[in-house]
Structures are given as structure tokens and as C-alpha cells.
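re the bet — no i am not wrong, look at it urself. input seq straight from the record:
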Amino acid sequence: MPSDALPPFDVGLLAPVSVGHDALLSDGVVLSTMIRVERALVAAYVEVGAAPREARVEIDHVFGIDEKYGSPERGIDVDRLVREGVAGGNPVIPLVGMLKAQVPEEHRAWIHRGATSQDILDTALMVVARRAVEQTRRSTANAAVWARQLAVRHADDVAAARTLTQHAVPTTIGARAATWARGLERAAQRLGELTFPAQLAGAGGTLASFVEITGSQDAANALPAALARALELDAPEAPWHTSRWPVTEIGDALVQAIDALGKVAADIATLGRTEIGEVSEGVGGGSSAMPQKQNPAEAVLIRSAALRAPHLAATLHLASALAVDERPDGAWHAEWPTLRELLRLAVGASAHGASLLAHLRVDVDAAAGNLGRTGGRIVSERLRGVLVPLLGAEAFAALLAGDDDLAPRLRAMPELRGVDLDALLDPAGYLGLAPRLARGAVHAGGGTAHDRGGEE
């Protein structure tokens, strides 16, 4: 591209969270995948005994059987495909004509035979989504591993728990990281449980064309599963042209993952504030105007995805709810860019999440210093139980007023002679199960996975 030429419409200039991580979601990959689906349909026909093997061999040869992923196959005029896709409302219609033009005449009839455009595009998007979801799952699981390591490393390092932005009670840095890990682990598990069904149902979702072509209801019934096998997808239980759960379930799982990553990023951005300083990013950007700054760039990018993702999933649900009749009139079309953008955010946010947690720097001294900002009041919940019986409720309330150091005042009270005030005021003595939570989930019935000798 000449240096003075404008780049393609979207190369990530305004979407830095996904730059370098979304190659699986390009228009070129979607186009290549649609062609793979058309080829796989021919293979499915051969498998059920309806098409001659020579048709599959010739069509695979024309379009390159080894080009599993990558750039659009040769012979496709992409600009023309995009233009002509407007007239029919989807790109499959002109694509079929272009594909047939490249195939020897005796085998052309097997290209797209019996299928409808939605069969091809839905199936292609499932292939694309499956790869992107797996990449997201791996990155999210890696982020969880790093969070678990932080949790164990800092299981006993005391910090202030904050509720409604204010110091509440003592916790540990590790307990907070374990909270991150649990959210990430659950999200990764849900991503791994998704199904990606192929779509093959014909014009009205009845498979009538396939019964006619194969001459057998059993062969037609076997065709969608054969297509799924050829593409490493799940066999559909039934047509889902207007039952859009495969799309909404993917969207929901992606949002759960981005939510979990967003929680981590929000905590890190807050804890990294100059006046708190308990964590900092190991990699990150500076400022164009303020050279002293080290901005939490990865946390910021993840948060940008977390702010957008729920609305994209809501659009998928809206489209699903309006998938009328046997082919949606616009609702289906709204899914394509929405699902891809959500996948794009998830792939990018999860990659940044794994990097963020892998390189996170924790300042234990800063966390310990922040504990003292309320002059011992961080353990006021504990103090109340011990001191109210000795001093009375009013005296205790007066004691907590102000922001001075409680220790000298408590030591001067004759009512408290004999009370181990150092132990009472030590935040490390009021951690509850925080260290155990950091080392492994506490289960009903007592103990943790580690305590029982089991694995997490």
C-alpha cells in the first residue's frame, strides 16, 4: 500500500484492545471459511453416497484442499463480492456464482446444492467462532493460572479490604487475587463447554431439498452430521435458523469471560492509583504529555472491552428474540458484525489479561502502609466486640471519631489494663479465612482442597 494511501476501513486504529490478536476474525478468514463450508458440503454428499467422489476431488483441487485457514482463495474478486452481496442481503449468493464458475461444468451442480445462504453463513460463523473461543479460553485459563500464583504467593500479605470505596476490614493480597482466579476459572470452564453446531436445513428449515437430492430421508438426515464432521463442528440436533441459542450462548459465555477480566482490570487500575500504589503493571504505556506517568495501559484496554461487551450480547439476544418465521428479516443480519466484534473483544481482552497478570508487580509495603491510614480503625469490627462490654457503646463510638492513632488513647484507658492491645490492633490477627481462601477454595464440610490433600 503506498505510504500516502488510506488503510482499509478497520485495522484496529480505534480498537487497540484487539490489535495483533484478532487475525482469526478478518473478512479474509470469513470468506475462506465460507468456501470451506461449500467444499465440506460436497464432502458430506460423498459421505452419504449421494455425490460421486470425483466431484469432491475436483472441487478440492480447484480451491486448494490444504488451505484450511488464511487468505481468500484465488479466483474470488472480493470487491465485486462485497458489492454484489448488497443486492441479496448476504455475501453467499454472489459467492456461489463465483465458485461455480471455477469448477468444471460436470461438477458444478454439487456446489451449494440444496443449501440456503443461511446454512453456509451460519456454519462458517460457527467455525470462526469456535477457533476464536478456543483462543479466548486458553488466554483466560492462562490468566487464571497467573492469578492463582499471585494468590498463593501473597496469601499472608495483609491489605485493606474496601467496601463502597472505603477501608472495611483486613484481608490479604492473595485473597483478592484468588477472587480474580475463581472468576477467570469459571469463565474458562464455561467457554470450554460451548457447542458449535453446523447448520444445514435448506430453504425453510425442512431439509426437503436434501431428501429430494439424496432420494432418502435417512441420507438427508445424516447429511448435517457429515457436514459437521468435515468441519470439526458439533452435529446439530435440529435446524436452528430461527432458534438462535448457539449464537446467544456463545455471546453470554464471552461476556462472562470479559466480565471476569474486567473485574481484574478495574481492581488493578484502582489499586495502581498514585495515592494507593499497591500494584503496578509490569508492562504498559506512558503519557504523551506527562513523562512521569506509567499508565495502566493493559487494564485500560481490558476495561474498554468490558464496557462494550454486555451491549453486544444484548444485541444478540434482541436479534434472537426477533428471529421471526423460518428466516429472520434483518435480525439474522444484525448478528454477523455483532458476534464478530464480541469475539474480537474477547480474544484481545483475554490476551491482555494473561499478560497483565503475568507481569503484575505487587508492592507489599504500600499495602501494609495503607492499612495504617485509619489509625487502627481497620479492625473496628473486632474492637467493638471486645471494647463495648468494657467501655460502653457511647464511649466506643466517641473513641472511633476522628482519624488519630487509636493505640495511645487505648493504652491510657484504665478499663483496658490487662488487654493485649498490640494483638487486638494487629490487622494480621483479624483475617478470618483470607489466607486459606487465597490458597484454595473453602468448601462446606470444612477445610480446603489443599488441606484435604486434594487438587484445586
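see?? The first helix runs from residue 27 to 47. told u. also DSSP finds 17 helices and four strands in the chain. so pay up
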